[in-house]
Amino acid sequence: MPGPTRQRERTSEEETETEEETGCPECESDSLVRSADGGGELVCEDCGLVIEEENIDRGPEWRAFNHSERQSKSRVGAPTTQTMHDKGLTTQIDWKDKDAYGRSISSEKRSQMHRLRKWQERIRTKDAGERNLQFALSEIDRMSSALGVPRSVREVASVIYRRALDDDLIRGRSIEGVATAALYAACRQEGIPRSLDEVAEVARVEQKEIGRTYRYIAQELSLGLEPVDPVQYVPRFCSELGLSEEVEQKTREIIEVTAEKGMLSGKSPTGYAAAAIYAASLLCNEKKTQREVAEVAQVTEVTIRNRYQEQIEALGIH
Predict the structure, then answer these.
(1) Which terminus of the chain is less hemmed in, N or C, by CB atoms within 10 Å?
(2) Residue numbering of the annotated binding site
(3) 230-315 has CATH 1.10.472.10 classification
(4) Where does Zn(2+) bind (predicted)?
């Protein structure tokens, strides 16, 4: 006779997965969330039932109540980042010329540390390829700071540049051109509205080269970027013009209604957004001149007039 089959015991992870799949046992809701305070409790959002509470705390053993405490108690280094050519894994020698206790070091030690710093910088890049990557990533960082884009965009731009480098797309093109195109692609991918004109202002290459390189790497890397939505530019433009929430909401309505009628096809998103803001400001009695709107949106007054006429005709306003 065959022996009795032994059923494998379910682990806590499998039980958690099953509970997450079936939902809350109390109200049968699927809205289950895991708390982010380190305890890792599994809680139902609708009825508040704590489904699971005995989880491994993977956080630190110490507690901190502000940023300075957290910094002083932390015993780990900074996380790895794609924005540095070595991903932030190499060491750096500080330029303060002070010892661990904050006291100034002697002139002999200063000259020794100066030599060490120089050699440390040299050995961080082993060949010309790494030096070029270091330069490209520093360019991305410089332009990102000038444009005021968040850290996530810098990371994405660095990843795009590294992919282009791995696929040998840099050959025959300038490092600055590819770096700028990668940053522009990252802005579009992350939904951060920055026009080609704005990127070209902080770049060290011509706008035509940026556009050409961007189209090339987007096609070769299959980035699959969708056309920019003019609505993305509305909050920033309205803020710079000092317009109210009412105007911003009206602008969104104008763009949505006219876009549904096919007016957006082939039009510049910045010019389209600028014209909608101008129309909304007139309708809400917060008039701004075409010149004021054009300066903020970096388009011509002629563009605003043409788009404005098209939009009011599509809305049936005369």
Answers:
(1) N
(2) 24, 27, 44, 47
(3) yes
(4) 24, 27, 44, 47
**What does pLDDT average to in each consecutive run of 10 residues of the chain (318 residues)?**
42 44 77 70 82 71 83 79 85 82 88 90 83 93 94 95 94 94 94 90 94 94 88 92 93 92 88 94 92 93 93 83
Three-state helix/strand/coil letters over the chain: CCCCCCCCCCCHHHHHHHHHHHCCCCCCCCCEEECCCCCCCEEECCCCCEEECCCCCCCCCCCCCCHHHHHHHCCCCCCCCCCCCCCCCCCCCCCCCECCCCCECCHHHHHHHHHHHHHHHHHCCCCHHHHHHHHHHHHHHHHHHHHCCCHHHHHHHHHHHHHHHHCCCCCCCCHHHHHHHHHHHHHHHCCCCCCHHHHHHHCCCCHHHHHHHHHHHHHHCCCCCCCCCHHHHHHHHHHHHCCCHHHHHHHHHHHHHHHHCCCCCCCCHHHHHHHHHHHHHHHCCCCCCHHHHHHHHCCCHHHHHHHHHHHHHHHCCC
Question: Which CATH number does 128-221 carry?
Answer: 1.10.472.10
Does 230-315 match 128-221 at the fold level?
yes
